[in-house]
Amino acid sequence: MALQCAPGTFPAPLLAPLLAATLLLTGCGAGGGRTADVRDAAVAFQEGLRTKDAAATCALLAPATRDTLELSEGKPCVTVIAGEELPVAGSVRGVDVYGNQGRAVFDGDTLFLSRFPDGWKVVAGGCTPDPARPYTCVVEGG
């Protein structure tokens, strides 16, 4: 038996599986929201560096990253972050999100982020590709 439908319509038995497949493939739109959230956090971090707002920059670091930075220098994050040699980021070239992990690639820097209860935080920054490892980072957590 052939299914006949008006142009632009689907028979009811095919509509539910098609809708389910669409939602599965798109993640109900959550991926786009997470991607925007990662991008926003990464841009805010870079803006904090650019404007030398050490408090805002440190607030966007993941707790373990901030702790590692402070322990390695024996000083508060706001003092240490100002002296770090983090590159000028430039424009965002791309954002990848995999579950609770994200990567923001800028013209001059790559940031890695994780999702925490209070939002996306930078776990590593000043990262450049390294043939011996995936990346070498100026700032990273322990």
Largest sheet composition: 5 strands, antiparallel
Helix-strand pattern: HHHHHEEEEE
Proportion of β residues?
25-35%
Within the largest sheet, what's the order of strands? 1-2-3-4-5
Estimate the mean pLDDT confidence. 80
Please tally the β strands and state the result. 5
* Low-confidence segments: 1-30
C-alpha termini separation: 64 Å
Secondary-structure-based class equals: alpha+beta
Helix proportion: 40-55%
| Total number of helices | 5
Shape type: globular
Integer-rounded radius of gyration = 21 Å
Explain this structure.
The protein is an alpha+beta fold and 142 residues long. The protein has a domain at 54-142. Helix content is 42%, strand content 28%. The protein has five helices and five strands. It has helices at 12-26, 30-50, 54-59, 63-73, 77-83; strands at residues 92-98, 101-106, 110-116, 119-130, 133-140. It has a five-stranded antiparallel β-sheet with strand order 1-2-3-4-5. A hairpin with a 3-residue loop joins strand 2 (101-106) and strand 3. The longest helix has 21 residues, at 30-50. The N and C termini lie far apart (64 Å). The model is unreliable at 1-30 (pLDDT under 50).
List keywords for this structure.
single chain; 142 residues; alpha+beta; globular
Task: Please outline the helices and strands.
Layout: H1 12-26, H2 30-50, H3 54-59, H4 63-73, H5 77-83, E1 92-98, E2 101-106, E3 110-116, E4 119-130, E5 133-140
Antiparallel strand pairs: 1-2, 2-3, 3-4, 4-5
